[in-house]
Amino acid sequence: MEKKETKKGKVMVKGKNKYIRFDWAAKYMLRSKADFVIFEGLINVLIGEKIEIVELLESESNQVNKDDKFNRVDIKAKDSQGRIIIVEIQQSRELDYLQRMLYGVAKTITEHMGRGKSYENVKKVYSINILYFDLGEGADYLYHGQTTLIGVHTKDTLQLTQHEQDDLHVVTPEDVFPEYFVIRVNEFNQLAVTPLEEWLEYLKDEYIRPDTKVPGLMEARERLEYLRMSEEERRVYDNYLDTLVRDTDVMKTKLLEAEIQGHKKGLAEGRAEGRAEGRAEGRAEGRAEGRAEGRAEGRAEGRAEGRAEGRAEERLANAKALLDNGIPLEMIIKSLHLTDDETAMLRP
């Protein structure tokens, strides 16, 4: 296998050894107990603790057909301590993704609580989100969130008594509350040195080092090599990759065309209305306050108001164009910061 060093030190790989994308493998291949070690490896390097998965729990998204657009994958597993790990792999952008993360954790807790059981049966949930789009703004490729109870005035961290620890079978409040990991795959662009970085290298480039010793990746090299697939499996997998590329390009093209169309329409309408209203208001005020002074003030105010209304018209035209191209209304409202009045004009 041939490797080529780039300017940033990232290793690009050439040669015959190609590995199957993790999202595909997770959804359609790694479903047996013998494959749990691959999932365990990824989870171990993230949470810094060796875990043992005892079963994969049923997930709705894993029942979806292979040809679904904007495919997402959920892995829901339970470890030997009864904790639940959700791994979600998301290809396409969703503006409300953070809310969906929260909902997924809340739903998981209630689903596995059981009616009539006491709250001591609530299990800790880890939410691991592998994203192939840019969520938010930040310089890092990995973000971690956890609830810690800190004194408002004293700044100390709330601890449990020994009796509470024995009764609840946890050491700290942090052992109860969910933890979130957000992996922004596209932001990883460096030479892989640590086990976590080697996992990111595989998630982004489908490359696994021949001499890797990283948990999970050693087993993945044997299980997920492209050339080990049958001819029919390779055909279906290659079609999946083509679909991902095509759907991504279609979404980008729709957004670009809608923005261009809306900009042109809004600019033309804004100029026309701005000129008409500016002249009318300038004449009216000019007659009342004096022709000379009115002309000057009317033109100035008319131009300012005309520009403002022109921008509003342009924004509304953009929104209509995006809506016509199939972009969800809630996404348009958040992206263009529409007012309630403007939103009402878009609703059927």
Quick overview:
This protein is α/β, with parallel strands linked by helices and 348 residues long. The chain folds into 2 domains: 2-228, no CATH class; 243-346, no CATH class. Helices cover 48% and strands 13% of the residues.
Structure description:
By secondary structure, this protein is an alpha/beta fold. The chain has 2 domains: 227 residues, no CATH class; 104 residues, no CATH class. Helices cover 48% and strands 13% of the residues. It contains 10 helices and 8 strands. The strands form 2 sheets. It has a 6-stranded mixed beta sheet, with helices on both faces. It starts with a strand and ends with a helix. The N terminus is likely disordered.
Main sheet: strand order: 3-4-5-6-8-7
The run of helices and strands is EEHHEEEHEEHEHHHHHH
Radius of gyration: 28 Å
For the largest beta-sheet, the strand count, sense and barrel status come to: 6 strands, mixed
Number of separate structural domains = 2
| Secondary structure: helix percent | 40-55%
Instruction: Detail the poorly predicted runs.
Output: 1-16, 61-71
**How does the helix and strand content classify structurally?**
alpha/beta
Question: How many individual helices?
Answer: 10
Global morphology: extended
Distance between the ends = 58 Å
Let me know the average pLDDT: 77
